[in-house]
Design brief:
- The protein has 4 helices and 5 strands.
- The protein is an alpha/beta fold.
- It has one domain: 2-Layer Sandwich (Transcription Regulator spoIIAA), CATH 3.30.750.24.
- It has a 5-stranded mixed sheet with strand order 1-2-3-4-5, sandwiched between helices.
- The radius of gyration is 14 Å and the shape is globular.
- The C terminus is likely disordered.
Length: 132
């Protein structure tokens, strides 16, 4: 699978690399959401900096949205920060966002540092904890 997941104190940092499919993203979403720490985590940083392509089908985007909607019943307070450097990956994420069905607040950034700053300034991690 073209991703690596690292759990942090208040959330998850995931690095995508190579050619990423919609199915890869679904597996990633399910892996994170099934983890016992998901109930208390507050952010996902999805780092697509090393992804050369992200090519989900419309059907895969809808399925992934459904998985996220289901996950929101367990934890509805998650920020999603995507780090994108390639136009083709950005276009796919914009298609996903345009569906308008994600239960989470999401934003796209050019660097991980800017994504982390947004999360820190949001206040989402203050007063919350996660088991590592």
């Amino acid at each position: 699978m073209p991703y690596e997941v690292s759990w942090e104190l208040h959330g998850v940092y995931s690095r995508y690399y190579g050619n990423v499919t919609g199915e890869d993203m679904r597996r990633h979403i399910e892996e994170v959401c099934k983890d016992e720490r998901f109930d208390r985590h507050r952010y996902n940083i999805l780092d697509f900096s090393d992804a050369t392509d992200f090519s989900p089908t419309e059907r895969e985007l809808l399925i992934n949205s459904g998985v996220l909607i289901g996950a929101a019943f367990t934890n509805h307070q998650v920020l999603i920060a995507a780090v994108v450097t390639r136009q083709n990956v950005l276009a796919a994420l914009q298609r996903f966002h345009a569906l308008g069905v994600s239960p989470y607040v999401a934003k796209i950034f050019p660097t991980v540092a800017e994504a982390r700053k947004w999360i820190q300034e949001s206040g989402f991690t203050v007063g919350h904890y996660s088991i590592a």
